[in-house]
């Protein structure tokens, strides 16, 4: 496959996150944003006009049948991700699916099985892993700068006033702290420690029955651990720390899209690294997908589907321990 062809993008779900992502396409060589789709034609047209996008579709059938769209960025609420991703795969289109990848483990498994069978590219939009600061941290860890990583700490909390109409508190839209915030803390722990063998959780629920806050302890057979905090009730610093046998790395707020970090090696002075992203920071995941498609790859090595599934299992396990059962939205018309 040509490594210099233009990859044509479409957006499904023109909400807040998509609005933030669009300007970063300017930093992506070989990518062109050509279409947007929403269940509301009015919203699609307004989004297209705002961002200078050529084609707007009311409903998802039009963009799925558009032969001039190579890849879809799926930014709908979590329970709608599965239906859109499955339809995209059936149409032969690659997908970049917002986190959390789906609302359930079964949904993630169905999407992963389908894209592999159809031989189309798919990736979870975990922008954290592609931030220049995190790329450098990954290199330092691989080179043994802090020895073996034994523990990870991370927190992510926001002060979100309770509103039963807010998506974050609506169970039908996959609301709750776990899928929106927990995905970040679990993903960074899984990235540097691997898949846990045990998940323990404590927390509280909002009146609508979704998770308002939670503390997770991920355990490993060899004694490694991750201590993770999330909340919709109050803001937290949003920091992360990787503890190794020969030092540690501090990632300052907000760790999920950092511009810097501090390397603390035993016997050495702390060393600060400043590595800001291109644009807002979404550009790097867009570059990953665009380059993968130009090269004919079906998965990202940085955010592989196996990691996505491992994180999804932790998220849903923790939710279920709190008595929260998420569901995929079977009413999505595609």
TrEMBL record:
- What sequence ranges are listed for the domain Gfo/Idh/MocA-like oxidoreductase N-terminal? 7-123
According to the UniProt entry, the coiled-coil residues are none
Question: Keyword annotations for this protein?
Answer: Oxidoreductase
Domain GFO/IDH/MocA-like oxidoreductase: residue ranges: 135-249
InterPro entries given in the database record:
Gfo/Idh/MocA-like_OxRdtase_N, Gfo/Idh/MocA_domain, GFO_IDH_MocA-like_dom, NAD(P)-bd_dom_sf
Source species of the chain: Microlunatus antarcticus
User: What GO annotations for molecular function exist for this entry?
Assistant: nucleotide binding; oxidoreductase activity
The superkingdom listed in its UniProt entry is Bacteria
**Which named protein is this?**
Putative dehydrogenase
Give the family per the record. Belongs to the Gfo/Idh/MocA family.
């Amino acid at each position: 496959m040509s490594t210099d062809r233009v990859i044509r993008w479409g957006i499904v779900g023109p909400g807040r996150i998509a609005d933030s992502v669009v300007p970063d396409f300017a930093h992506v060589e070989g990518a062109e944003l050509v279409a947007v789709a929403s269940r509301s034609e009015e919203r699609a047209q307004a989004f297209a006009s705002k961002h200078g996008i050529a084609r707007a579709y009311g409903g998802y059938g039009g963009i799925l049948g558009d032969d001039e769209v190579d890849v879809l960025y799926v930014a709908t609420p979590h329970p709608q991700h599965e239906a859109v991703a499955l339809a995209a795969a059936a149409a032969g289109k690659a997908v970049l699916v917002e986190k959390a990848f789906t609302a359930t483990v079964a949904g993630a498994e169905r999407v992963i099985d389908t894209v592999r069978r159809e031989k189309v590219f798919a990736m979870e939009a975990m922008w954290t892993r592609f931030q220049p600061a995190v790329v450098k941290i990954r290199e330092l860890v691989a080179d043994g700068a802090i020895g073996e990583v034994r523990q990870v700490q991370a927190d992510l909390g926001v002060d979100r006033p309770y509103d039963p109409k807010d998506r974050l508190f609506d169970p039908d839209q996959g609301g709750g702290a776990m899928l929106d915030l927990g995905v970040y803390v679990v993903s960074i722990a899984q990235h540097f420690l691997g898949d846990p063998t045990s998940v323990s959780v404590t927390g509280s629920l909002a009146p609508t029955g979704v998770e308002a806050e939670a503390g997770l302890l991920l355990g490993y057979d060899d004694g490694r651990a991750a201590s993770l905090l999330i909340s919709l009730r109050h803001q937290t610093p949003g920091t992360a720390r990787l503890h190794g046998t020969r030092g540690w790395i501090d990632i300052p707020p907000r760790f999920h899209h950092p511009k810097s970090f501090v390397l603390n090696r035993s016997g050495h002075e702390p060393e600060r690294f400043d590595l800001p992203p291109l644009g807002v920071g979404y550009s790097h995941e867009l570059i990953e997908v665009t380059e993968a498609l130009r090269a004919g790859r079906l998965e990202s090595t940085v955010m592989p589907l196996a990691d996505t599934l491992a994180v999804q299992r932790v998220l849903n396990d923790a939710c279920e321990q709190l008595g929260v059962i998420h569901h995929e939205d079977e009413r999505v018309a595609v």
